[in-house]
UniProtKB/TrEMBL annotation, chains A, B:
CDD domains: ACT_HSDH-Hom. One of its GO terms (molecular function) is homoserine dehydrogenase activity. Belongs to the homoserine dehydrogenase family. L-homoserine binds at E192. It is an enzyme of class 1 (oxidoreductase). It holds the Pfam family NAD_binding_3. Pathway: Amino-acid biosynthesis; L-methionine biosynthesis via de novo pathway; L-homoserine from L-aspartate: step 3/3; Amino-acid biosynthesis; L-threonine biosynthesis; L-threonine from L-aspartate: step 3/5. This is Homoserine dehydrogenase. One of its GO terms (biological process) is methionine biosynthetic process. NADPH binds at K107. Residues 350-424 form the ACT domain. It comes from Aliishimia ponticola.
Length: 428, 428
């Protein structure tokens, strides 16, 4: 181990600047904790001449991140460019092939290419670390991979996209419709360039894919995730849920059932008073359940310069201290291919539908549910709008298959005005 | 690194049995994650012939934990006996002197002898790990030492004694007085043999001393902690606090001020809706605040077979994976001696006092507070009992010094019937 650990940082957006700032401002602290000096050799970004509010003159510059990744004076390549493919992936591969350790915040790259990258890193004896890729400042990768390594993990769930949680809690608190709050979030700069990544659940699903792999010893399987965004959640749904003691969250859940690995990222109802239920604004939360530890809940800022940089530096410190771990907690070639199971595990569901306001309509719906074996826990008929009455039903535990059967049969009755909204109620 | 990591486990109480169970039941999982077999060579406990519900025949037996700690077939000595001195300390020292790694759950030993043990471990190149010593199953030592290593920590606080939190939340929920709930906790077996360790705040203070050391790079200083137990908290205090939107928690707080390291373990008021405020029963919570990460909150079971064993096994897995870290996050000889500062940082306070029910009494109290520079935010006069009226005052931010001055002057007025209860209101 050399005395100094030398970084090459690619990407000088918010997070990159945050990392540079910590390295510059907290050098003595980092040296005390790791026993080594941590320095930046060179950096790379799309434009060189831009005031980023932090002094970069003393570092080398590379226009090409691949050139940065393979410099002789770089021990650790820090990839903060983003994008699942393109330069980020090329430079990460180049770094690993050159025997450099890599720290990245790139959830999309890991969710889509995690297996190949892990195999490459492990074949080269390099570290590939990504604490910043999931839940910002929360050290959840470390908790799952190391702190809870003695557990057979039974479920991982959480709120992993701060923008969606901001939108949902703001709708609830201000009583505003989705479209208004979406626009507000846009104005505040909370949304990705392609907002579908946020509100469509894709970004959060990338994170879930990574957590699932570590938790269950399976290959990262982004395609196996059932994804549903928050676009169809209305202020009425939020109010109905509230009346019944629930909050609506974009919730990621991964658990193993007899049929395979179940990964869902979709709006769900959670108890209002539960740790997830009380989660406000852009904060993230991950709940890890294991056979021994029962339940551990981790909560913290899901994004932002400081928190994300904190996670990147945590990884850098681990590398400086000589920590070497398999990328997903066990060697990549031992990770299993688990078949993707679609909502096999039963749960109660919240249903909202518009019913033709005619005698017998409700009875037809109830009959259809009964025939599919879906039993009703609570039902409320709410306000009428013209000829349509909104009906809210909470079912007893049922499988998604039975529910889908009922929803199809319901459409055939002719009394349901629109595609019912069906949200799972997740137990906590 | 040998293929197999061999443990010697001293102490076969709840936690010891939990550790044996995980090693036996999850062997393939642990091997997949660490790349090594983890086996038990021998065990030790006070009595050999006792049915502990787990098969121990295949392991060696030692009556003397020191003999266990130094066996040739033991790589890691797992100390689960407890007690700050005596056999636990002797065996830990023997293990380190023999070049063995040590995993312990012993908060008292670390709080009182942490510096010497860390120096010994580091001089021998051995690991000394203690995740289970603080907050049971929550991987908080790891989060603080590793995950958040890029942060200058600004404050660590939390609820670290499940029994006290059980008592306080049960008082609140059932409306029962302290004495009744204390007796109930006793019947349920929640209290230590010496209950002062729990309700007197000692056990939680041991844990805080350990967290402070890691957070601030200071030598463990248990004696520098201001400790106050929950024995004087009444059901009335809980109700008054509730009325004002607060909960009372036995709260540990460590932060650095210009005057030194401030460590407090005492009943405090926290906002009812905050993560700490909503914490129920025996659950623990640690809040870590750092210059970059802002705030991370960790929550989980603070005790019990599974959760504590989970923490022990996490440490064992780290050792199996070759992780070597300084015991308190930086080398023991670099840890500073920080002067202990007593509540230097100002805060609002909750005061409860019994006032002689005479004209002018309240004015006298208000005058005394004003003279000491303590200004009143809210004041309520509550129910009379005989000639005594209970008065609740919430002050604006003040130093403990100014407050103590006021309390002394108050006693001299002759209108205050008993020593006022003064509880800090901790901002979150």
């Amino acid at each position: 181990m050399t005395d100094t650990l030398r970084l090459g940082i690619a990407g000088l957006g918010t997070v990159g600047v945050g990392v540079v700032r910590i390295i510059r401002q907290k050098a003595p602290l980092l040296e005390a904790r790791t026993g080594r000096k941590i320095e930046i050799s060179a950096v790379s970004a799309r434009t060189r001449d831009k005031d980023r509010g932090v002094a970069l003159q003393s570092y080398g510059w590379e226009d090409d991140p691949v050139a940065l990744a393979t410099r002789d004076d770089v021990d650790v390549f820090v990839e903060l460019m983003g994008g699942s493919d393109g330069p980020a992936k090329a430079a990460t591969e180049a770094a690993l092939n050159a025997g450099k350790d890599v720290v990245t915040a790139n959830k999309a790259m890991l969710a889509l290419h995690g297996q190949a990258l892990a195999e490459l890193a492990e074949s080269k004896g390099c570290a590939l670390r990504y604490e910043a890729a999931v839940a910002g400042g929360i050290p959840v990768i470390k908790a799952l991979t190391e702190g809870l390594a003695g557990n057979e993990i039974t479920r991982v769930l959480g709120v992993m996209n701060g923008t969606c949680n901001y939108i949902l809690t703001r709708m609830q608190d201000a009583g505003l419709p989705y479209e208004d709050v979406f626009e507000e979030a846009n104005q505040l700069g909370y949304l990705e360039a392609d907002p579908t990544l946020d509100v469509g659940g894709i970004d959060a699903a990338h994170k879930l894919a990574i957590l699932s792999s570590i938790a269950f010893g399976t290959r990262v399987d982004f395609d196996g995730i059932e994804i549903e965004g928050i676009e169809r959640v209305t202020i009425d749904d939020i109010r109905h849920a509230d009346d019944m003691g629930y909050r609506i969250k974009l919730l990621g859940v991964a658990q193993k059932s007899g049929r395979g690995l179940e990964q869902r990222m979709m709006p769900c109802l959670v108890p209002a008073g539960s740790p997830l239920g009380v989660l406000q604004g852009g904060t993230n939360m991950v709940v890890i359940e294991g056979h021994a530890v029962e339940q551990v809940v981790l909560r913290g800022p899901g994004a932002g310069e400081g928190p994300t940089a904190s996670a990147v530096i945590g990884d850098v410190c681990d590398i400086a201290r000589g920590l070497r771990l398999p990328v997903f907690g066990q060697r990549a070639e031992t990770l299993q291919e688990a078949p993707a199971a679609r909502s096999v595990l039963p749960a109660p569901y919240y249903l909202r539908m518009g019913l033709t306001d005619k005698p017998g309509a409700l009875a037809k719906v109830a009959a259809v549910l009964g025939e599919a074996g879906v039993s009703i826990d609570r039902m409320r008929q709410r306000e009428h709008t013209g000829d349509v009455a909104t009906v809210i039903i909470v079912t007893h535990k049922t499988t998604r298959t039975a529910l889908d059967e009922a929803l199809t049969a319901m459409a055939a009755t002719g009394v349901v005005q629109e595609l019912p909204v069906a949200l799972r109620i997740e137990a906590l």
